[in-house]
Design brief:
The protein is an all-alpha fold. The chain is built from two helices and no strands. The chain has one domain. The chain starts with 10 loop residues before the first helix and ends with a helix. The mean pLDDT is about 85.
Length: about 90
């Protein structure tokens, strides 16, 4: 069994929760609260994974831009070398 907590919720929010329970969307208020907590926790986890993936893509993009710069520099060096050889 899990841990218990005491939670103060604004009356308006409690009314909405009770309406959802009465409508059969959730079996109990406790079930609703467990669902809400899980949604928040898993949402935070997904945000963390999304941020990590975004960071990885940004690094790859930066690395690719650096590679493109190095390629252009190498092409310029090759052109200069070839120009000197012709002169």
């Amino acid at each position: 069994m899990g841990s218990k907590i005491l939670l103060n919720i604004p009356e308006k929010d409690m009314e909405r929760i009770e309406t959802l329970v009465k409508a059969g969307e959730y079996a109990t208020k406790s079930e609703f609260m467990r669902f809400a907590v899980k949604q928040l926790l898993y949402g935070e986890e997904r945000i963390g994974r999304l941020e990590a993936a975004t960071s990885k893509v940004q690094k790859q993009t930066k690395d690719r831009k650096q590679i493109e710069v190095e390629i252009e520099e190498a092409k310029a060096d090759t052109r200069r070398t070839l120009s000197k050889g012709r002169a």
